[in-house]
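Researcher: First entry.
Model:
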Amino acid sequence: MRYYLVVGEASGDLHASNLMQSLRELDKDADFRFFGGDLMQSKGGTLVKHYREMAYMGIIPVILHAQTILRNLDFCKKDIAAYKPDVVILVDYPGFNLKVARYVKEKLHIPVHYYISPKVWAWKEYRVKSLKRYVDEMLCILPFEVDFFRKHQYRVHYVGNPTVDAIVNRDQPGESFDEFVSAHNIENKPIIALLAGSRKQEIASNLPAMLEAVKGFADGYQIIVAGAPGIDPLFYKEFENSFPPVRVLFNCTYRILAQADAALVTSGTATLETALLNVPQVVCYRTPLPGLTWLGFKYILHTPFISLVNLISGREVVKELFAKKFTVDHIRTELKQLLHVKSYRQNMLNNYKEMQVKLGEPGASRRAAEIIYSQLHL
């Protein structure tokens, strides 16, 4: 079978690579062509365009790069048509992928499967109509999404969460603190981990305040920044030089978290990864026009939280400091709680366990692959 996948960011690259591995186990003749990243490329097939050329976030960057985005979209459509796959698999990235889905269904009449549903439950609920029209199989990874789509008479599948798989299958899961310290030639001091985002504009916006907030902890802790995949290490140099002592480590985010006493994390998959590794965290995310953003969150978005941990749990488990709540003092105060108030810290860890039960067992990629493969053989 011929599979065409479209991914637009680092987390999608990870989950799509695991899906490809599961598809190959079911289909020994699987041939892959994709917009994606290095992890997908490691599974074989043809990388057509790297997600680094596509990852624009926010209104202003999208407007500034509108022509590039349109060229990428046009190229993607033509490439799918030339390849003639048996199925197109879209992974998150809704602004781009919903346009691909419409073209594939209306012009090419090829089955479309969507892995990792667009977050239409947060806003743009009207997009459900497009999903029902252009997507044959929706494979959800968040348990509450099933009820949301059922409300719209849309039959979807909950396959489990691929982040659970990624954590279970991570490199060196049994690594000790001493082994980690030795491997990276760092100090033998407790770690505060900083995960500032996966895109340059996110990192530039969030990391300075994060670093300012942890300055007062430098005597008792070492500050480790998890370098984002796809970002040039030189990009972090100004932060390392401006806020010593800081270390930036690449390609080992899970290993950093596994050894950390606490973490400052931007919103997104990273909050879930941090919780699954049982690391107390504070979610912090700077936004432009914080007052206006806060009003928009309260009165426009259809969700009470921004972090996956809280959304899955259905209540506040981790503190969310974003928009007008994003301040250095607020971050520092919450970090003190996580590090020094045992009952506060333990309550968060107990809530993590309840959330993990809701997510279910590992095997999301396998279950998703089985649905895709079986539908091709009906």
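Researcher: Second entry.
Model:
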Amino acid sequence: MAENLNDAATAPERVVVIGAGGFVGSAIVTAARDRGFDVLPLGRGEVDLLADGAGDTLRGLLKPGDAVVFVSALAPCKDYVMFEQNIRMAKNALDGLAGQPLSQLLYVSSDAVYSDFDGPLTEASVTAPDNLHGQMHAAREIMFAAALAESNPDTVFASLRPTLIYGAGDPHNGYGPNRYRRLVLAGENIVLFGNGEERRDHVSVLDVAGLAVRMLERRTRGALNATTGVVASFRNLAEMTIGFADQSIEIENLSRSGPMPHNGYRPFDPSEVKRLFPDFAFTELEAGLRAAFEEVRAAEAG
């Protein structure tokens, strides 16, 4: 069970975000700066975690008392080559972090670490994933926790496990609301697998960043899911997105070539978020999707 070690919200001395150039990392940098934190954003230009000597480079950028957010990954992890690269990135980062007097390491992981289950998943659910993406994140969590316990015993370790993330800056075009938004804005039809009946939890990238900042302020230790507790079908998401547009878009159905992922249903219990951060409220799904849609539409309009 996660716990807040600070009784009240307290700004870290400095926040170092590794992976600051990415979709989630940049949102965390913005949220931390909005909170008044001193932030050092590190992207690939500052530290290439796949390069030789990356650990030495990272070590030279750190200061005692830093709170480090690690959100750098090649994702989604689709094959064994990407798996090895992600593990190497974590290993190189640990070469730089090991022995450093950090206040906290927050690893942005994924809900993919959990095995499928018939009911709502919680932070106590079994973490034995049967896919490479989940196995990669689970392995990294173990690596970070074990290394810190050995070389940085005073450093607090936490993992934030978001479910499917949506937002205006998403670069991946994965199946779901981010792809639907691109299709609708391009005037193209949305194609669903089957009838789009699988139901999943979706979280705004702004909420993920908001939780990360709160975990830094309260020096949270342990695992926390960034999951809203609300599930929606992919058809419902597609219909919502079409409703944001000013033109007629059709939904097409593609026959499935295999079983539905996660048996078509993957709910979560968000009680831990409410317990740890009672002032925090997740963005309502339709409102969040509409806001991202309007932000992108305005940007494309110039």
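Model: Note on the second entry: The longest strand covers residues 156-162.
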